[in-house]
Amino acid sequence: MKPDIHPKYHAVKVIMTDGTEFTTRTTWGKEGDTMRLDIDPKSHPAWTGGQQTLIDRGGRLSRFQKKFSGIIKK
């Protein structure tokens, strides 16, 4: 393997959206840097099960609902 072709692997501090922090090793930044997260598993709807809102203005969703409205009983 060629020497000095891989990025440096070092420890950084990660601060979550709720203020909790932990240390991890990464190739991001420099040794001792702090990474502040805007989105994390505690706040993102993909992990928290948040409600998704479908917005459709006469497009694909409306055509689908019109086509299959008789199949699905409410």
Give a description of the structure.
- The protein has 74 residues and is α+β, with helices and mostly antiparallel strands.
- Helix content is 16%, strand content 20%.
- The protein is built from two helices and three strands; from the N terminus they run βββαα.
- It has helices at 45-48, 60-67, and strands at residues 10-15, 21-26, 34-36.
- It has a three-stranded mixed beta sheet, with no helix packed on it.
- The N and C termini lie far apart (62 Å).
- The mean pLDDT is 82.
Describe the secondary structure blueprint for this structure.
Elements: E1 10-15, E2 21-26, E3 34-36, H1 45-48, H2 60-67
Parallel strand pairs: 1-3
Antiparallel strand pairs: 1-2
Features:
74 residues; alpha+beta; single chain; 3-stranded mixed sheet; 2 helices; 3 strands
Question: What gyration radius follows from the Cα positions, in whole Å?
Answer: 23 Å
Order of helices and strands: EEEHH
Instruction: Give the helix/strand class.
Output: alpha+beta
Question: DSSP strand (E) fraction?
Answer: 15-25%
What's the average pLDDT?
A: 82
Characterize the main sheet. Answer: 3 strands, mixed
Q: Largest sheet, order of strands side by side?
A: 2-1-3
- Strand segment count: 3
Low-confidence stretches: none
Helix content: 10-25%
Shape: elongated
**Distance N to C terminus:** 62 Å
- Give the number of helices: 2
